[in-house]
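Dear Dr. H.,

I hope your travels went smoothly. While you were away I took the liberty of generating a structure for the chain from your last submission, since the lab meeting agenda had it listed for discussion. I wanted you to have the full record in hand beforehand rather than looking at slides cold. The sequence, exactly as received, is reproduced here:
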Amino acid sequence: MPQPLKPPALHPGDAIRILSLASPVQADLLQKGCDELTNLGYKTRVDRASVLAKESFFAGSATDRAAALEEALREPDSRAVFCTRGGYGSNYLVESFRAPASPKILLGSSDITSLQILLWQRFRWVTFYGPMVASNFCHGPGAAHGYDRASFLRALTETKAGYSLDLQGESLSPDDLEGVLLGGCLTLVEASLGTPWELDTEGAILVLEDRGMKPYQVDRALMHLEQAGKFRGVTGIILGDFPECDPPADGETVRDVAIRLLKPLGVPIVWGAPIGHTQRAALTIPLGVRARLLTDGSARLDILEPACAS
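The corresponding predicted structure, in token form, is as follows:
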């Protein structure tokens, strides 16, 4: 794969621009999340009128959200853009998006997958799939629905070397292979099919997670990816814990579906990592960097290069 463009690392005292790029956000959760970032030693930049805007399903109009994102990525006095939450609406921002020449940290998950795929496919930006301000940081480090502090800090501050990450999941297919970390929310990865920014998964360790889907709906989405050739050449798969995806009585679980459809690929597979939509403390996964997935006796991800530049 082409060389990724890595953003400058985050340092204590740096300013973080907070944006709502998808659905509306609650003011109290926003404030709690910003307070936690302040506790971590960062300054938050929040235009409350913009961040708390509401229009239909969205946190303001697509024009306003796109303009806020482009301005935030170019402003010189912030080092990163953190998303408040997912929901729905990031897909409205991608068609006319103009990225600056130099990358900046973008942290988010869920619906933000659409932007992360675009930034990788069009511009080769490394981005970060992880906790959001009013979804995770608001609950605190290590807490239920909160965030994993160690993986967050390592991903966004390390500039010298790679590191290992305990995926806190179950190995479904023992092996170890290398690839480039890509993916995100299953529904949004699937939604990229047929677009000019369709995710190229050749040589990827593919991250897939979601919530609130019935097992047959996960089956359908995975079959769509399979039939579209998106598992051809994949070197590993990391699956989330798919909360609120309970089966009917005596029916197949999402884990059962994953074993049936994905194990025949013959690549290392991890089930149940706390990523994206999770009821545990969410890990931060850098997207666009080389990694090795180890599933023989453990469920570990060795990040083989720093995700940030010095």
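Two observations you may find useful: The domain at 163-303 is CATH 3.50.30.60 (Glucose Oxidase; domain 1). Residues 27-39 form the longest helix (13 residues).

With kind regards,
E. W.
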